[in-house]
TrEMBL record:
Residues 25-124 form the Rhodanese domain. Gene3D superfamilies: Rhodanese-like domain. It comes from Anaeromyces robustus. Pfam families: Rhodanese. InterPro entries: GlpE_sulfurtransferase, Rhodanese-like_dom, Rhodanese-like_dom_sf. It comes from the Eukaryota. This is Rhodanese-like protein.
């Protein structure tokens, strides 16, 4: 088992470089941005869906449906769910919320700050 950080393990996380490769390869997945709507409206990654952390539990059925529909669309049994926020703090708190609802997800380590630093220096934060 990996290093436990804020209730999640290393297996619950991917790097911004790994996520960038997922985007480049057009690998089917769902990305949820857990920041508040005001932050999301300033800038978000391609195809991100905004569901703020405080609304995750109430949207569990919607998230399950999104995953199911995307998997069906690409003829796969299941597809991964990734979470992003500004710095990874909120996503690290979001993973257990979704886990309690029976939803597996992964944090993009360092969040959008890391994305801006390593992938897209012009990304608006």
């Amino acid at each position: 088992m990996g290093n436990v950080i804020k209730g999640i393990t290393d297996e619950d996380r991917i790097s911004v470089e790994e996520y960038n490769e997922i985007l480049k390869a057009n690998t089917p997945h769902i990305l949820i941005d857990v920041r508040p709507e005001t932050a999301f409206s300033r800038g978000s990654l391609p195809n991100a869906i905004n569901i703020p952390k405080a609304q995750l539990a109430d949207n569990a059925d919607r998230i399950k449906e999104l995953l199911k529909n995307k998997a069906k669309e690409v003829n796969q049994e299941k597809i991964p769910l990734y979470l992003i926020c500004r710095s990874s703090f909120t996503t690290s708190l979001s993973i257990p919320i979704l886990r309690d609802q029976g939803i597996t997800s992964k944090d993009i380590k360092g969040g959008l700050l890391e994305w801006k630093k390593k992938i897209d220096p012009g990304f608006p934060i």
